[in-house]
């Protein structure tokens, strides 16, 4: 793949990793988006062996239950066309400064956990590992990829001692991409484009990354994707102590939704200025003050955001009840109800 190095802007708060992790996992957790990514950015030789129609997320027991075994990145079970086994594709997200030194050891632990689970099941043919590192640091990675042998002792001849278990992986380096040459379907390019703009610190240009929305013909899907993208943009702005205001969202959505009522509905439901300010101030104050009050304020805003995303509209009495809550324990309980309830009415009944 041809790569291009772009100039980066010096704005990269330490706290942004979790924000980007959550966004990428949510977008790439969609099977169709993963297949799209694999098809355009994966090893063509491997992809040719996979039955793309039968790909699914790996069973949870493959990932492991113990903290030292758990794989926190996305793992997909990819059956082979010849029916003789699976390839286990793992996407890893690297949002830090770009030091990949310990990555090979991490990958060895990942595939060992998967193989252990498969052997306990009695499988005679274990899954073939395929690791893709999606790196989103600010600067392009230069030099050769780290190896296991890099951290092992060397003999007099300068070569690593012992039978070294090297593990291979592909690196997809976001800073190297030319924004206008992102490939794949609209949802994949939306996710990568928004991610790239936020990583570069080019928040003022984020509306350009929304243009693939024009290619989505299903209005419900278009609205759902728009809300998810804007939720990420709001959080990214908040991490930089900035606000996403009504004018910016209005201008960004004009080319996408021709009807003014549609823009206003999306914005008022989830991205009115008060909500954007609440997210920014809640997270900023919670981190700055380090107080229980700041954490509860952040919890209220995140719960409201989740409810809007899930049920699209929150009754005023329910919103007022949530905004008056000051007990962090109760807030956690309400969040669990929000995840399990099937309707807003069910949630409202649960918190009374």
Account of the protein in words:
This protein is α/β, with parallel strands linked by helices and 352 residues long. The chain has two domains: 16-181; 218-350, no CATH class. 49% of the residues lie in helices and 8% in strands. It has 14 helices and five strands. It has helices spanning 16-28, 31-41, 44-49, 60-63, 103-120, 186-200, 219-239, 246-253, 260-270, 273-289, 292-311, 316-324, 328-340, 344-350, and strands at 56-57, 74-79, 86-94, 128-135, 170-173. The chain has a five-stranded mixed beta sheet. Strand 2 (74-79) and strand 3 form a beta hairpin. Helix 6 (186-200) packs parallel to helix 7 (219-239) and helix 11 runs parallel beside helix 13. The chain is globular. It starts with 15 loop residues before the first helix and ends with a helix.
Main sheet overview: 5 strands, mixed
* Helix content class: 40-55%
Strands, count: 5
Could you state the order of secondary-structure elements as H and E?
Answer: HHHEHEEHEEHHHHHHHHH
Number of domains: 2
Shape descriptor reads globular
Strand order of the largest sheet: 1-2-3-4-5
Q: Quote the average pLDDT.
A: 78
Span between N and C termini? Answer: 56 Å
Structural class: alpha/beta
């Amino acid at each position: 793949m041809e790569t291009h190095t772009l100039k980066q802007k010096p704005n990269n708060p330490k706290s942004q990793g979790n924000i980007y992790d959550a966004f990428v996992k949510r977008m790439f957790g969609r099977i169709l988006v993963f297949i799209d990514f694999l098809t355009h950015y994966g090893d063509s030789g491997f992809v040719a062996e996979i039955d793309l129609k039968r790909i699914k997320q790996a069973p949870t027991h493959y990932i492991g239950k113990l903290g030292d075994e758990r794989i926190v990145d996305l793992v997909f079970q990819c059956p082979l066309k010849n029916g003789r086994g699976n390839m286990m594709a793992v996407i890893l997200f690297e949002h830090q400064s770009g030091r990949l030194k310990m990555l090979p050891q991490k990958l060895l632990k990942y595939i060992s956990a998967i193989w252990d689970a498969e052997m306990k099941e009695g499988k005679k043919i274990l899954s073939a590992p395929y690791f893709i590192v999606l790196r989103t640091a600010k600067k392009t990675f230069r030099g050769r990829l780290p190896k296991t042998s890099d951290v092992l002792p060397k003999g007099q001849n300068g070569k690593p001692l012992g039978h070294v278990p090297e593990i291979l992986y592909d690196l997809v380096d976001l800073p190297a991409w030319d924004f206008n040459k992102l490939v794949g379907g609209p949802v994949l390019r939306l996710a990568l484009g928004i991610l790239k703009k936020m990583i570069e610190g080019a928040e003022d240009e984020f509306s350009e990354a929304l243009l693939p929305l024009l290619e989505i013909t299903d209005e419900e899907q278009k609205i759902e994707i728009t809300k998810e993208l804007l939720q990420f943009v709001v959080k990214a702005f908040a991490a930089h102590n900035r606000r996403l205001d009504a004018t910016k969202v209005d201008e960004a959505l004009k080319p996408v939704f021709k009807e003014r009522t549609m823009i206003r509905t999306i914005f008022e439901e989830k991205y009115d200025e008060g909500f954007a300010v609440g997210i920014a101030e809640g997270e900023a104050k919670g981190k700055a003050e380090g107080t229980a009050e700041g954490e509860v304020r952040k919890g209220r805003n995140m719960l409201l955001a989740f409810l809007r995303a899930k049920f699209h509209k929150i009754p005023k009495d329910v919103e007022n009840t949530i905004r008056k809550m000051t007990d962090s324990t109760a807030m956690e309980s309400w969040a669990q109800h929000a995840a399990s309830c099937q309707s807003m009415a069910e949630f409202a009944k649960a918190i009374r």
